Amino acid sequence: xxxxxxxxxxxxxxxxFYLSGDRVQLGCIAPYLYVHNAxxxxxxxxxxxxxxxxxxxxxTFTSTDILSSFSSVGNYAHVFFPIIPDVPxxxxxxxYIITLSATGYTYTEGSYLGWIRQHENPNDIFTPTGTDFDxxxxxxxxxxxxxx
Amino acid sequence: xTRVITFADGFSSATxxxxxxxxxxxxxxxxxxxxxATILTLDPTKVKTHFYMIEIERLGSVQYRQSIEAVLTYNGxxxxxxxNWQGSDLVASTLAVPQNIxxxxxxxxxxxxxxxxxxxxxxxxxxxxxxxIA
Lengths: 148, 134
Known about the structure:
The complex is a heterodimer. By secondary structure, chain A is mainly beta. Helix content of chain A is about 5%, strand content about 50%. Chain A contains one helix and ten strands. Chain B is mainly beta. In chain B, the strands form two sheets. In chain B, strands 1, 3, 5, 6, 7, 8 and 11 form a seven-stranded antiparallel β-sheet that branches. In chain B, about 15% of the residues are buried.
């Protein structure tokens, strides 16, 4: 049994992150999403520089895309959903904003897409000073490494 | 509103997970809010009883925190009832501060006004909501 702390998507949800090392080749960015009763609409994940210089990557998907990735059929799911760039994408050192938005979608209590907050993360060694509702929106990032 | 979902085993389900009590992250009320400002819009088809905890905390050298409970219930129209202010302040002259926060209902909108909290500009004013899903 999993306990999830979920922020439903009303209009937009945002998360900021900062890369402090050398530039990375982005393999995928995977927000931890919650699908509640297969909401209609097209969702968009975009990564933009916090300097406002435009989107680095943008990709759309539907709740069907998420649900069909499971072997068992259901309208409710939670998963780190990978957003894979269509073209090679490098991120340089600096701040970025991940934005989740939608078109043709209306939040209702009975059907929505949500972004799950980090909760009871065994790998998180830093105890939040607030409640779990203040935890960051959970996201994973995979980077590509050169095979030597 | 941030909520807690209890999901059965696995990552996909054909049945509705258990959606627990809907919590609301804390709000920050502004100082000198002379015109009624909407904090949130209530939906009586979703939640008919809200329990609010309102806390005023002054940061800085003098520790100050007062809190009050407010209950909002829907019986065709929203009714707002308050408990008593609890807490303490080391400076007696500031005990009147909580009275400068006024909550009102306008239609389905929970609104507030605030007076001059002079001397408390470093204060944090929070309101947290625990509702019972209809």
